[in-house]
Each structure stands twice: as structure tokens, then as C-alpha cells.
Specification:
Number of helices: 13
Distance between the termini: 63 Å
Radius of gyration: 21 Å
Helix content: 25-40%
Largest sheet: 6 strands, parallel
Strand content: 15-25%
Number of domains: 1
Shape: globular
Strand order of the largest sheet: 6-5-4-16-17-18
Length: 429
């Protein structure tokens, strides 16, 4: 199986009809990962990842079961920061941790994904935060699965044999030592498996500057993990990625010469594919090769500093996967009170200008969306042009203001009632 990222312009106009099913018809095939990167009247530009020569059959990412009911028992929110777009908050390793912690203080459950929480050896996951792989988060808001809180998972960590690529043995020793540290400090149940027949990964950027990539020969990894995946609840991947100049790219990123994390997009392609194939929570950490482990870091932008502390980038996903919620796909079990479904999602928080499946699913289901001002990310969408219901889309200047908006939604307070001047009451005749 090979996976490639593609870009395409489609004739498409958003309206009040069922837009997600129309997108499915427009493509005529099912990508693994999908985002709208630019909108114009009657036209959308899409970036998507597709599989080639795959023996695996994946459910359509456009499969959609809109909710018919909204639960008011608790208040739950999603925080989404797309990977590989250079977001102002969440565009660097782990720099959105404090923001996620803040949002978690005003909701019963915060549902987010690895790009928000992963900070190399740091993951400040709170007890009411769900760490959810991106494609699984999509399936949740699309209504095809539910999630149940886990008290602790049995985790399998699959790592590359670095000696195959000529790296010293201590690279693998660092991986195993990190897993052992997680067993001791988290009290978790972790096993490791060495992969000797390695897929080929290549980090790329497109003309927009978005982090993308290509993968070749992923079948062996899926086959290998499929043999034993039933014994585990979640899977961590620790693999080395190739870039055109791996030291130069690394150096450029930490000197702020490259704004977009160059390996983030490829990580998302890998985990979306693996999670879809195995129906499991999967997260990825890039294995650091010898030259990067020993790289003499300068004093860096604080948002990039978590990556300067680590030899493996691995601990963050081990903690996330250990507490990741369980996937519930049985329709009868999805109705249980301890299972969160799309009926239990009350708002999503995103950087402005981002349109993916969660935003489209929210649009169609009337879920409020809080778009936080972000002048740095490379998306070119005008969210105001979408056919929102009155008051459904809200713009926040920052995440502190977004917290206030969440509190308004949670407590039934309209924004117009606290803004000044207060508009005159409408009179209909």
C-alpha cells in the first residue's frame, strides 16, 4: 500500500443542503484524510491523502449519521488544531498544552487530538480530556462511533529497527528505556515490538507550505500489527522519517526559518491510515536519528522548546494512548450514558480559516463553532461564507475570549446580551 497527498480544485457551492454527502458524490472515491484549504464562490481547493494498491477496504470518511437529539446532561467541547498548517497555537510541539488545560476547566469533557497535546516528553493531559486520534475524532462528530472513558489501556509500541538504516544501537535503546519509564511512572501496561521490514516515509511540503508526505509499502506494518492487535487497546508508532536534508530541516525549524513542523503532516497520514485499518487509537512519534539527538540546540522560541528536551519524542504519546478513550461502534452500546457521541458535543474550537470534516459536520448539525483568530496558519478559507445558522459561528480574538464564549454557551447567555451597545429588540409584523 502506498499513500500520497494530492491537491485538487472542485466546483462546489456550500448551501443548506447536506454538504457532506454532496462532497462524497463529488469525489467518487474515499480519501484517508481530507481538508478544504481555500474557498471561492462556487469553488473549493482540497488537500487529501489517498491509498494506492491497497488490499484493505476502509469505511468512507464521508459516512455521516447526523444527530437527532442534543443531550444537555453535561457540556462537552472539542478543541481541534489541524496538523501541518503552522497554527499560531498548536503549530509547534506541545505548545497548546496550557491552552487545552484552560479549556478543560470550563467543560465536563474536552475532546482533542495528539497534535494539541504531544510535546515530546511533555503531555499535560487532564483527567477530563479525551486524547483521540484525528480520524477517530472525525468519526465521533460524524456520528458513526462513540467514545468511552478508559481507566488505562494495554499499549503496544512498534518501533523501527534503526540498525537497518545504519543508525547506532543506542537509538533503539532510547525507545525501550522510554517505554520502561512510562511503565514505572504511569503504572501502565506497555509492550514493544521491533519492525525490521520498514515502510518508506518521506516528508514533503506543498506549494502552499503545508506539511504533507508520501508513504510506500505500509502493508507489512499493518499486517504485522493486525496479527496481535486484538491483545491491545491502542498502538504507538516510533518510526524514522526521511526529509530532503534532515539536519538542515531540523536546524531551520528551530531557527524559525521554517514555520511549519515538517513531519506533522506525514504523521497524520500514518495515524489516519493505521487507525482506520485497525479500528484502534494510534499515535506516532518521530524516531530521532543520531545527528538530531546530538544536535546543539540554540536558545529557541519557547513554543519549540519541548522538542529540545527529548531523545525520543515518545513519552507524550505513551501517556496519551494509555488514557485514550475506547472506541464504541455498536449502535446499542452507543446509547449508554457513559458513552459520548455526537449528541453530546456542544461546541468545537478551531483556529480561524480551517475547514475539515469536524467543521462541516458541525455546520450541518447546528453545533456552535468558535473560530480563534490566527494570522499565522496557511489556510485560506472564509468561514463567514458558510451557511451557518444565526449565532452558530463565533469569532474569538484569542483562547481566553473563547473560554468566555464557552461559558456563555454552557450557561445559556447570548453574546448579544453582554456586548455593548445592545442592539434594539427586533419587532416582526
Amino acid at each position: 500500500m502506498n499513500i500520497k497527498q494530492k491537491n485538487e480544485i472542485k466546483n462546489f457551492q456550500f448551501d443548506r443542503s447536506t454538504n457532506i454527502s454532496r462532497l462524497s458524490e463529488l469525489f467518487g472515491f474515499d480519501p484517508i484524510r481530507f481538508a478544504i484549504t481555500k474557498t471561492k464562490p462556487g469553488e473549493i481547493e482540497c488537500d487529501y491523502a489517498v491509498t494506492e494498491d491497497s488490499k484493505y477496504k476502509f469505511d468512507s470518511i464521508f459516512k455521516f449519521k447526523p444527530r437527532k437529539f442534543v443531550s444537555t446532561n453535561k457540556f462537552n467541547a472539542m478543541m481541534i488544531v489541524p496538523t501541518g498548517i503552522g497554527a499560531r497555537v498548536g503549530g509547534d510541539s506541545g505548545d497548546a498544552n496550557a491552552t487545552a488545560r484552560l479549556l478543560s476547566t470550563v467543560v465536563d469533557t474536552l475532546i482533542t487530538h495528539p497534535n494539541v497535546m504531544n510535546g515530546a516528553d511533555i503531555n499535560e493531559l487532564t483527567s477530563n480530556t479525551f486524547y483521540v486520534e484525528g480520524s477517530i475524532l472525525n468519526r465521533l462528530i460524524m456520528g458513526t462511533i462513540g467514545l468511552q472513558k478508559s481507566r488505562g489501556n494495554k499499549v503496544l509500541v512498534a518501533y523501527d529497527d534503526p540498525i537497518v538504516d545504519g543508525e547506532p544501537e543506542y537509538i533503539a535503546n532510547c525507545t525501550i528505556n522510554t517505554v520502561s519509564a512510562a511503565r514505572v511512572c504511569l503504572g501502565g501496561d506497555f509492550d514493544v515490538i521491533k519492525i525490521t521490514k520498514l515502510p518508506k516515509y518521506k516528508c514533503l511540503t506543498n506549494e502552499r507550505g503545508m506539511a504533507i508526505g508520501e508513504i510506500e509499502n505500509l502493508d507489512f506494518l499493518i499486517d504485522k500489527l493486525s496479527e496481535i492487535s486484538s491483545n491491545y487497546d491502542s498502538i504507538g508508532l516510533h518510526t524514522a522519517f526521511s526529509v530532503s536534508d534532515r539536519i538542515g530541516t531540523h536546524e531551520g525549524y528551530f531557527k524559525n526559518e521554517i514555520e511549519v513542523n515538517p513531519w506533522g503532516g506525514l504523521e497524520a497520514m500514518v495515524t489516519h491510515t493505521m487507525s482506520s485499518a485497525l479500528n484502534m487509537q494510534v499515535a506516532h512519534a518521530p524516531m530521532l536519528i543520531d545527528g538530531i539527538i546530538n544536535y546543539p540546540y540554540p536558545i529557541c522560541d519557547p513554543a519549540k522548546c519541548p522538542e529540545t528536551l527529548t531523545k525520543t519524542e515518545l513519552y507524550c504519546i505513551l501517556k496519551g494512548l494509555y488514557y485514550a478513550p475506547k472506541i464504541i461502534s455498536d449502535s446499542e452500546l452507543m446509547s449508554r450514558p457513559d458513552v459520548i457521541t455526537n449528541e453530546d458535543i456542544h461546541c468545537i474550537v478551531i483556529p480561524d480559516r480551517c475547514i475539515g470534516l469536524p467543521v462541516l459536520a458541525a455546520l450541518e448539525q447546528g453545533i456552535p463553532v468558535i473560530a480563534v483568530d490566527d494570522s499565522r496558519n496557511i489556510m485560506e478559507n472564509d468561514l463567514d461564507a458558510l451557511p451557518w445558522k444565526p449565532g452558530q459561528l463565533m469569532h474569538a480574538k484569542n483562547y481566553i475570549e473563547a473560554v468566555g464564549m464557552i461559558q456563555c454557551l454552557k450557561n445559556g447567555i447570548t453574546l448579544s446580551s453582554i456586548e455593548r451597545p445592545v442592539k434594539l429588540t427586533k419587532i416582526f409584523e
